[in-house]
């Protein structure tokens, strides 16, 4: 049985006051909708990623644990709980929901309770007292209020997905900064170690020069090599401090006194994330979800703009009693209005909302192909950096052996100083490059986890609870 039929039968079979009859009659008038049917924009999506046969679903969850670093686990947990930018995003969720509640209030009558007291002296003192209830309601015959409420709800959902996107980016940024600090620490240790080795060689060359075995040219060259290695350290320390302070802000801590206990990049494992299928990004990436939520909101706005062209009925109902006379007081006022001419305002608003739908449709499609590009880029980076790291490790092994042999031969007098100088610098460059490639390799894995949606899960993405956004 429809709402309208139920209302008509109730009106026929029951006895009610005029205000009650008017409120029941409203039920028979509401229920239409001018919102266009929403259809999710179609976009061709490949069956699988280029360069990977992986067909398993991406697992989601706390991806950072795959690196097997308790310190990283602690930092990300702290950041997700204390980062101020994420806290602000969670507050924006509450703001959006409160705004949606305000907009949704238009679907219901506004009820007020009041009283009146009058005392007049008109050839005698007269006192009047009354208590009344007043209801004001705009009949949502064309679904205008319902569409406006649904639009606001969709925007509130978009704010939830925006917070998830920020959470996804925050976790990846913490991991990237942590790995960068560890890498720079190791590069500092390398520069110091190479400088110490160069100083030992310098001591040897100075002894040889004092004995006339070599010239002062060799001494100056070796001193220059040692100073070059030492000169690299202040720049590396400055980069290390910058990354460390950035990491402190990400986890919601003051930079002063913030430090790490990391033992180096070699203690970390480089995971191999499961990429799943491209179509899975539509459910995993919160930025895609946010784009669709905004598109849904704009579609409801079109319904609001359409309904504005049609007649509008407002009801003002009042009922109460006169406490002196004991009689009932009531009134019922219905106001019907039909827009005739608004200087193009209504038509302009409709055209704006329709164009906004087209704009957000394009944005939604763009967000999908950018997400696909993001994953594909990270897949390629992870694959190629894995090869690069293996090749650079071999280059470092060769450079270390060459440096060892060159020092032995130089001490024995079977090789010249220039050869020793070259292998020293080659070893340093090879080891420093390896550390940078190791950092890029770890960050590529982080980038792939982020591109797949971060720590997404069915429960996290489906839920709109701010607490699940703010805490891991």
Strand-residue fraction? 5-15%
Query: How are the strands of the biggest sheet laid out side by side?
Result: 1-2-3-4
What structural class should be given to the helix and strand makeup?
Answer: alpha+beta
C-alpha termini separation: 47 Å
Q: In CATH, what is the class of the largest domain?
A: Mainly Alpha
Largest sheet: 4 strands, antiparallel
Per DSSP, the total helix count is 12
Q: From N to C, what is the helix and strand string?
A: HHHHEEHHHHEEHHHH
Low-confidence stretches at least 5 residues in length (pLDDT < 50)?
Answer: 1-29
**How big is the Rg?**
36 Å
CATH architecture of the largest domain: Up-down Bundle
* CATH third-tier fold name of the largest domain: Outer membrane efflux proteins (OEP)
Oligomeric nature of the chains: single chain
Average pLDDT rating: 84
> Can you say what the CATH homologous superfamily of the largest domain is?
Outer membrane efflux proteins (OEP)
Shape: elongated
DSSP strand count: 4
- Report the helical percentage: 55-70%
Give the number of domains.
2
């Amino acid at each position: 049985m429809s709402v309208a039929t139920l209302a008509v039968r109730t009106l026929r079979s029951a006895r009610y006051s005029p205000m009650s009859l008017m409120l029941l009659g409203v039920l028979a008038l509401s229920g239409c909708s001018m919102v266009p049917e929403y259809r999710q924009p179609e976009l061709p999506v490949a069956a699988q990623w280029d360069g990977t046969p992986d067909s398993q679903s991406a697992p989601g969850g706390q991806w950072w644990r795959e690196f097997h670093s308790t310190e990283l686990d602690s930092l990300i947990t702290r950041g997700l709980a204390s980062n101020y930018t994420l806290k602000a995003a969670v507050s924006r969720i509450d703001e959006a929901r409160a705004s949606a509640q305000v907009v949704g209030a238009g679907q219901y009558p506004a009820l007020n309770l009041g009283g009146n007291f009058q005392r007049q002296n008109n050839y005698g003192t007269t006192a009047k007292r009354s208590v009344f209830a007043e209801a004001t309601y705009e009949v949502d015959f064309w679904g205008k209020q319902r569409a406006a409420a649904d639009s606001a709800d969709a925007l509130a959902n978009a704010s939830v997905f925006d917070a998830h996107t920020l959470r996804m980016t925050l976790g990846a940024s913490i991991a990237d900064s942590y790995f960068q600090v560890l890498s720079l620490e190791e590069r500092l240790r390398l520069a110091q170690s190479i400088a110490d080795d160069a100083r030992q060689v310098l001591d040897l060359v100075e002894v040889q020069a004092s004995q006339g075995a070599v010239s002062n040219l060799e001494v100056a060259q070796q001193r220059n090599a040692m100073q070059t290695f030492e000169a690299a350290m202040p720049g590396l320390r400055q980069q290390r401090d910058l990354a460390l302070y950035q990491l402190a802000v990400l986890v919601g801590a003051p930079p002063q006194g913030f430090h790490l206990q990391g033992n180096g990049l070699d203690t970390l494992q480089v995971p191999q994330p499961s990429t799943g299928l491209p179509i899975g990004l539509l459910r995993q990436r919160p930025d895609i979800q946010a784009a669709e939520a905004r598109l849904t909101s704009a579609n409801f706005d079109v319904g609001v703009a359409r309904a504005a062209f049609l007649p509008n009925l407002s009801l003002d109902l009042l009922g109460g009693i006169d406490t002196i006379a004991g009689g009932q007081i009531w009134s019922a006022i219905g106001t019907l209005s039909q827009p005739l001419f608004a200087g193009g305002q209504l038509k302009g608003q409709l055209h704006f909302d329709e164009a906004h739908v087209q704009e957000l449709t394009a944005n939604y499609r763009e967000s999908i192909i950018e997400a696909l590009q993001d994953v594909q880029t990270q897949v390629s980076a992870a694959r190629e950096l894995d090869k690069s790291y293996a090749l650079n490790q071999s280059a470092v092994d060769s450079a270390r052996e060459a440096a060892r042999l060159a020092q032995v031969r130089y001490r024995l007098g079977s090789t010249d100083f220039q050869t020793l100088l070259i292998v020293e610098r080659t070893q340093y460059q090879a080891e420093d490059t390896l550390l940078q490639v190791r950092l890029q390799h770890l960050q590529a894995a982080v980038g792939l986890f982020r591109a797949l949606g971060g720590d997404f899960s069915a429960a996290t993405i489906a839920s709109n609870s701010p607490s699940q956004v703010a805490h891991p």
